[in-house]
Amino acid sequence: MQTRKILLSEDEMPRQWYNILADIKMNPPLGPDGKPVNPEALAAVFPMNLIEQEVSTERWIDIPEEVLKVYSIWRPSPLVRALSLEKALDTPAKIYFKNESLSPPGSHKPNTAVPQAYYNKVFGIKKITTETGAGQWGSALSFACAQYGIECKVFMVRISFDQKPYRKSMMAVWGGNCIASPSNETKAGRDALEKDPNTPGSLGIAISEAIEAAISDETGQTRYSLGSVLNHVLMHQTVIGLEAKKQLEKVGEYPDVIIGCAGGGSNFSGLSLPFVYDKLNGKQIDIYPVEPSACPTITRAPFVYDHGDTAGYTPLLPMHSLGHGFVPAPIHAGGLRYHGMAPIVSQLVSEGIMEAKAVTQLEAYKAGIIVARTEGIIPAPETNHALACVIDEAKKAKEEGKEKVILFNWSGHGLLDLAAYDNYFSGKMKDFILTDEEMLKSEEIFANYPKPALLKNR
Ligand SMILES: *Cc1c(COP(=O)(O)O)cnc(C)c1O
What we know:
Blueprint: E1 5-6, E2 16-18, H1 48-55, E3 60-62, H2 65-71, E4 79-81, H3 83-89, E5 94-99, H4 110-122, E6 127-132, H5 136-148, E7 151-157, H6 158-163, H7 165-173, E8 177-181, H8 187-195, H9 203-215, E9 222-224, H10 231-250, E10 257-261, H11 266-280, E11 286-292, H12 297-300, E12 303-307, E13 316-320, H13 343-350, E14 357-359, H14 361-375, H15 381-400, E15 405-410, H16 418-425, H17 436-445
Parallel strand pairs: 5-15, 6-7, 6-9, 7-8, 10-11, 10-15, 11-14
Antiparallel strand pairs: 1-4, 2-3, 4-5, 12-13
Bound molecules: pyridoxal-5'-phosphate.
């Protein structure tokens, strides 16, 4: 029998995260005056210890013992050889994936929720506010806050709140308090409802609400937490790629192709950044973030300075963006409905170190079902986008007759997304593809914004 799972013992779990800011140059975030923001300016939003991580240029950051203890509930995650999928596709490619669906909330998100809750706790914070798209982040943060005894308040994008009621139940089990966004509790929410009472909501609006709720708490003991996009979030996720590297070494393999779905860019970066380090040092690897065609930030939107949220509370971040006012079509992959992309991913795509791909949701589900029927795990709608690209690459390897090693991230399971699968089977699911006119509109918004530079990271 061929080995399917490559496992690490708990002793072999990485003791440090990899911080790519030691190895690449980035454009700074800008304040309202157009000048680089002073980290202290963010102190009302995030605890200082996490702000220090956000701007650190140390290559390795120690993972605290108290975080390792919680990680050990589900980490190290298995590296799985997708033997059945390979056989079904009759491909010479070897396909490996990190199974991040095995965490208690069912996705990669607790890899950063746990350290964020921990650092808030150490800093004396009693309550964390956040937004959630499909509900994975809200449930991951509720789980993490329960581990350290912190209160958690979640603003959930309206369309997912209605489509995925069980995510809210999960948050409640872990003690999290979840409400639909836009809500009447914040000015940002009331403004959005006034503009369109039937809005499906967006991550941008929910982020504005959560930040406002944190900074307006007069006790000073509430902070905000973001589940993707920021540098420290991507760094916490590198535990995925660091484990994968060790696991591949055990079987004498190295990836030719790395694939992950990209919403804000965190699970994809978690897997790929430790390998980007190798690529910057001369390795040949094709690295593909895959996004939905309905929300094409890195494949079609410009590299600009934009706000991370709709109300413009965040500094201007250098990123590929559809514009902070953009409300994506109601696709089922709620975790991929974000107007921007992590600055690190945006910079690396703009400089040709990674190559962005987009797939439609029908392509994504078609691939997801092929994989569910072979590998068994029902993928999250977000993961399906990566799977469409994995199948394409495996077919390409067959045409070229190459025994390529493909590594991808299985970011989460879809057990709370079954209604979306029903939609697919009944033929009700539609594709949404932005027209060139709609894309041009998003370019026009940025006419008067500062432009980030290419920094020759390669
Ligand atoms: C949130 C989520 C994503 C998208 O977020 P990233 O920050 O791009 O990783 C992808 N897959 C799953 C399962 C998610 O929960």
